[in-house]
Amino acid sequence: MLKGRALKLGDNITTDHIIPGRLAHLRSDLSELAKHVLEDADPTFASRVKAGDFIVAGNNFGLGSSREHAPLVIKMAGVSAILAKSVARIFFRNAINLGLPVLICDTDNIDDGDELEIDPGQGVVKDITKASQLTFSKLPEVMLRILDEGGLIPYIKKYGDFRV
Amino acid sequence: MGKTLAEKILSQKSGSDARSGDIVIARIDLVFAQDTTGPLTVRQFQACGFDRLANPEKTTLFLDHAAPSPNRSVSNDHMLLHQFARETGCLIYDVGEGICHQIVAESLAKPGDIIVGADSHTVTAGALGAFATGMGSSDVAIAFGLGKTWFRVPESIKIVVSGKLSKGVGAKDLILHLIGNIGADGATYKALEFGGDGLANMSMSDRFTIANMAVEAGAKAGLFPADRVTKNYLRSQGRGDHYQPLSADSDASYERTINIDLAAIEPTVAKPHNVDNIALARELKGTKIQQVFIGTCTNGRLEDIAIVASLLKGKRRHPETRLIVAPASPQVLLAAIRAGYIQTLVEAGAIILPPGCGACLGLHQGVLGDGESCLSTANRNFKGRMGNPEAFIYLGSPATAAATALTGEITDPREVM
Fold first, then answer.
1. Do B272 and B258 belong together in one domain?
2. ipTM score here?
């Protein structure tokens, strides 16, 4: 069970919003890079985010580049899951590969600051603030297994190969 | 039931009867990373405990995104990648040796291949009939080590093009028009497969431009059949033996079909800050532009530079509009020199950058100032993309870019032809 606070973002948050190309020179200095998480979407995000918080976004979250640094800096900021109405393909796979859950659900009625409780196994998000609940679509089996192991690297270290 | 191009290629490389929605494990014919994604790929490869590449001859690193390096930390990343190449025996293309997707197109990709790259525009090679897609550093690191990866076989959307583009209208206008219509998530998780009698009129350069931007509609791949145009291109690159004909079955099943009459397309521009935010170039007349950037994996080929040179010959850029041109590879640059295009461009007031990604991603070589606007032939106009979140990026064809450089405002190229 995951418990935390919703940090609300809009539609079409690009990988450049999350971590722009102009900071590519910091990609081998991750702790420095992570200070800039989402700064072009919400300059207050880095100071507001607390361990365990959820990103709650609209459509097409993470569109753009293949840079795995995008989900990586979000994870380093302490975000425990991303909820969005839809997610771009490469970002989706990258987040799961880093052990960061991505849940596809209708986020319209969740507001910034709402307290949420997520049961990944049951596919249910409870909005404690609003006393409401919604469901999310189940991930493909292969992604669930990668997530269960904490990401792709630990998964391959354990199994040595893909098990599909 | 017949198969789409995506199903055909994934069936062959996974040794199974792959159908959309299936999860398959497929062998990889080419895997690569570039200088902004490569260092993390190398670290993930090492973290996984691999000590060798599955196929060094099918593994490539490219130093193109910051070429030559603008600062010390990127230089150190370049050193890390050179070190990895020395240790593992993979191929490496150094700074100045071209944009990864252009080199893959010129020298490496074949019809029927599966290609994964740590760069979202890996989809470019779909123009040659390769199932090519971008992935992150962890996936690519595992592909380095295992020589295979998993795929969800995508549903395909068929794009049927008919007729011929009008004078002054290019492949870039077509793909911007399509993305504007289906939206920046209109093909998420899916393959765009191009067909129709209009393909016979499309050069490989046109096809690379279109496939390149498939990802801007969210697509996993942008696929073209391998036909006579493909065959002639591979032959011209000294790779005639890499050709095999490849097409979707006539009874393949598509999620939907979109018909496009090429003659109806007009010069099209994507406005800030999303690629699907399109307008016609003529509707944006009067929009002042401080920088025109021509190049990138989308439009940095010889055909693109030829169009620009033909529009700028004997003329001079607008005094308040910088003009920056980056050929996509040394092959393109040399051919442009031989054809006299580079001289024409320099005489018109252009700055010529070395082959590479140049100003596209905001690291260097053309970072925009606060409030400035750029008309770029690249593929992304996201906020902050060219190094400044206070700047504005418009995307257009090489012809629109050249016309805009002449007038200093967004201009329909048909007005200056």
1. no
2. 0.96
